[in-house]
# Entry
Amino acid sequence: MSAIVIEGYYAGLKSKADHKLLPLKEKPVIWVGTATCGKAAGAIEVREAFKKEIKSRGLDAEVMEVGCMGHCYAEPLTVISKPGFPPLCYGHVDEGLVKRLVEDFLVNDDPCYEYAMVALEPNDIFPTLTDFPRGAYEEKIILEDCGFIDPEDIDHYIAREGYAALAKVLTMKPEEVLEEIKASNLRGRGGAGFPAGIKWEACRKSPGSEKYVIVNADEGDPGAFMDRSILESNPHLVIEGLIISAYTIGSSRGYFYVRSEYPQAIRRLETALEQAREKGLLGNSIMGSDFNFDIEIFRGSGAFVCGEGTALINSMEGKMGIPEHRPPRLAESGFRGKPTLLNNVKTFAYVPAIIRKGADWFKSTGTSKSPGTAVFSLVGKVGNSGLVEVPMGTTLRQLVYDVGEGIPGEKKFKAVQIGGPSGGCLPESALDVPIDFDSLHEAGAIMGSGGLVILDEDDCMVAIARYFLEFTQKESCGKCTFCRLGTKHMLDILTRITKGQEEDLASLDILRELAEDIEAGSLCNLGKTAPNPVLTTIRYFLDEYKEHIVNKRCPALMCTDLIAFYIAPEKCSKLCNACVGSCPTEAVYTREDGLKAINQDKCVKCNNCLKACPTEYSAVIKLSPPELVVEKEREQK
Amino acid sequence: MSKTITLTIDDRKVTAPEGEKLLWVALENDIYIPNLCAIKEEGRPSASCRLCFVHVEGLPAPVTSCTQAVREGMVVKTRTPQVDRLVRTAFELLLSDHRLKCSTCPQNRSCELQKIARARGLKLKLKRFKSLGKEYPLYESPGLFTFDRSRCVLCGRCVWVDHEVAKVGAIGFARRGLKRMVTTFGNIDLDASSCTECGLCVKACPVGALNFTGEQSSEKDG
Ligand SMILES: Cc1cc2nc3c(=O)[nH]c(=O)nc-3n(C[C@H](O)[C@H](O)[C@H](O)COP(=O)(O)O)c2cc1C
Ligand code: SF4
Ligand code: SF4
# Structure
């Protein structure tokens, strides 16, 4: 009987949603991406401009807000779907282009193809995503609807089969749901790749009737924004996954632990939770079943370590967000001492599709040990930055060169930093490593939460390692000896190396030994993984370290203490004064013969003159070690 | 209630209640394992000082003995090259953040750091690391004791007795990372806090951070 009730309930929701969205198929709709990335690029102005133009012309068209489509390099992004045309995506939209699109496309049927990036449905006129290398590699499971539905209207989600998985689950036994998740071999996307099914099973088996499920949306890695994007673009996907997990382990209360620096994600989540309650998808007797469950949002304090499970629980209980020794595991004793399931945003986001389409479908993507897709935020020296979702097993090379379209300019690739501050730097020789939990681990990096920074020849690996270590050192909670004090000593050594103050190669041995001891001796994974960037750069870029110490030279010309700015007389045009004007300290001057030169005593190495010098001359160069300037000047005389 | 089991520590067979933490089993059998933060009565070990590493046969890496429950047939070594290396590094790290002037310290010769050094043949001197130069002014309580934060190793014993034995709750940990410290709630003066000067924290302190006022003289002369 219950199955009929639930199926009927869902059919009702679905047909209502379809009906409501029907008119959108019959008139032009403009979708503006207003996730944080879009907003930062001016999406709100674009949205308002569209509204104004449409209104002033009295057109019957709808302006909708959607989340992030993953092409952050081209924000603000807009998609226009007009009956009779394929939906077309436009990048770098500004108010001028808005006017043009309204006038030419909405009023007169000219889609301005010269401005369009890509069409979103197969058609005969304009290329679609799969016609680009990026589209050919990308395979979207959890980002599928991101950017194509209104995150503030639950009916958009429902119209795209949202909550169908929940309806299905409610007609199954919890053990059957568990078996499906276990069979899918879904692994946690919060960093370590622990099998979700095993965790769910442990929580389910843990004695006690009071249990909790928690979404970890702390996302503290610098540069990572995948979880935020998903919550801002498709919050119901994660909510649905969480409800399913609660049903499976037998919990009636769930939480989103979201960092308070994500106000937009929190706002959209609040709206989504409210709408889910209105539709009977949360609260008592969900979809007419006898399952009761509700969700609250907890705002995290923003410390990186609060993303660690035990620290997260402490912080939710009102204590300092500081890790504890494990065991006991959260599955035995978590929030308020009760069995608790903690998974990452993305982990939960895979659940609805796995339930709808089955474990076998999920395993058909990716590798056998790491099925499904990986979501990365590509940043750094890469043509196409943004959010990408590719099958596990895609190689780093494909990700950098095909999906990311390679290194801009004529620069040479140097390394990828993968996994954020707890991850590692992999060199050219590791580019053919397939991206999956185990292969990355073997190479010395980790999947982490999916930050991927691409580095080129201008990036100094010692400075990069120092940058990441500085982050973890500052974020150490200070509880345990190795992490609190060890990371500080490592950082001090690295600082001395980048400043040319380290005289002895033996300092590299101390650095390595200390790094290994911190890995082995720290209490929690923040400390245990903090040395990764240093260990991998020592492993793959030892020569760069040695150059800094022995020759006081930074081969990438990045460490300011080890470089000097110099104007090459044979390149300087004499006639232009760009560099002179650009210098904040008047270190650049005109010599008697008209050539420009730099007074090294005054130079603060701000890089202004180098940027100011017109590219046809490129006369300002960096030299390392700085003493080379004296040599050059002597040569000249 | 729990049954008695037999395990081997450093080739010696010892018996203990099953599930007891290894550190206490060893100490009760006069097998010394370095430790600063461990409190037997504490429900969940703090496991923060990272000095009590041992090797347990079958486990891939050294573990902290304060968190390791004993099992029947367990074979433990308190000294292996791996264990010694971790203990040495943790010890040196603590020294790098500790005002190392033993001769003027009120706890000279009754300090746990000196005991560890003696037991493990470690020097009370910095070799690989530079001193982090921790210097705080000496705090004097209204009557009974002084607090030299420059010597605090953040073991948390004082906080524990304050909360769990004296049941006063005058002090606690504050700040994060290198700035982590023991202080009063709200970082107010002790005399304005709920401190009753019972002195339990002073007795609990394993190093020369908390001292009864009378013990302080040599420091001031020095
Ligand atoms: C310092 C530190 C920070 C972490 N931050 C996060 C985070 O922001 N989000 C997250 O999902 N997991 C984070 N984790 C991992 C969590 O401890 C936990 O393993 C994860 O949430 C489990 O979910 P999963 O199995 O779905 O990956 C962090 C771990 C550490 C040690
Ligand atoms: S490893 Fe670092 S963050 Fe983790 S408990 Fe120790 S000091 Fe705190
Ligand atoms: S004052 Fe003494 S007892 Fe308290 S934390 Fe510091 S070293 Fe430990």
Observations:
- Chain B has two domains: 4-82, 134-222.
- Residues 81-95 of chain B form the longest helix (15 residues).
